[in-house]
């Protein structure tokens, strides 16, 4: 009976590497495969190394002259007998669960799926592993954009102690990206073994504050870079609040020394849904801890404003950008958009609107500074 996967390995003059590549296939957790090695006209010990494997699943085909990787792969495809083909370059090796995980994806994806790709790690000569950075992120970094890993599932406000393994993963991503900081929300997302799948507000009691502060400190100890905490938008408030939102946020930053990721769209959403003057909140926050600012879009449904990150940024959020910039220097902005991406022109209009609002706010600030200087002088 034909195997499920044909593994095609083209090779030219790489005896040591192809030995390692073949061994990584033989060590797969999924074992229903055949290996077709195409020796593309090697002139060294490569042929002998492959021939020395005594596994009956390995077929060695030899090109008499070197015809290049594509021709060698085509030879392998023609020789294979399995319904799935997997390519492995002779200087690469697979992690043990590679085939198992790819076939699992094929298994649950139906007939429309024709290709399953994987990420890759780069192993340096000294054995250190460089995790692959997605090209889009690498492009941003090469243009000088600071990339900040943004957590959503640490559940720092949960009653249970923060999951250290999640923090360690965030720490590893931060290190890998050479990130200046990481950020997470002032929220909880799970309790009693249930995942909310949503950022939930924390009851603003002193007891909740103590738990949150404890979790933030645990996370800070495990992270290689500073942690910035973000205010969320909430559709409801828990009863029995002992502190206002401003008092609660100020206390968190004060007791943890965390940086602040201020989401102005969330400030707007909360003012709209729960009441309160957003500028009063801005006046109460420790703006000297500001790391950067989020601005995102949303929409109103049935009288409730939803912070969707899938709609245009409301005018009120731009107005808050101006208010903030009239109070402090803003180190950076991030325009949040998670889906329904608009045209580049539309995105640029929103970015320009942020810049203009910052300019107006800064202008107000410098005018105020000039006036107060005049009074004091
Ligand atoms: Fe945000």
What does this entry look like structurally?
The protein contains 12 helices and 15 strands. With about 375 residues, it is of the alpha/beta class. It folds into 2 domains: about 5-120, Alpha-Beta Complex (Spore Coat Polysaccharide Biosynthesis Protein SpsA, Chain A), CATH 3.90.550; about 145-375, Divalent-metal-dependent TIM barrel enzymes (TIM Barrel), CATH 3.20.20. Helix 9 packs across helix 11 (about 315-325) and helix 11 (about 315-325) runs parallel beside helix 12 (about 345-375). The longest helix is centred in the C-terminal third of the chain and has 33 residues, at about 345-375. The termini are far apart. The mean pLDDT is about 95. Bound molecules: fe (ii) ion. Fe (ii) ion binds near residues 230, 263, 294, 296 and 336.
Quick description:
The chain has about 375 residues and is α/β, with parallel strands linked by helices.
How do the strands and helices of this protein lay out in sequence?
Blueprint: E1 5-11, H1 15-26, E2 33-40, H2 46-51, E3 58-63, H3 69-79, E4 84-87, H4 98-107, E5 121-123, E6 129-131, H5 135-142, H6 164-177, E7 182-185, E8 188-191, E9 194-200, H7 206-222, E10 227-230, H8 245-256, E11 259-263, H9 264-274, H10 278-284, E12 290-296, E13 299-301, E14 304-306, H11 315-325, E15 333-336, H12 344-376
Parallel strand pairs: 1-2, 1-4, 2-3, 7-10, 10-11, 11-12, 12-15
Antiparallel strand pairs: 5-6, 8-9, 13-14
Helix pairs in contact: 7-8, 9-11, 11-12
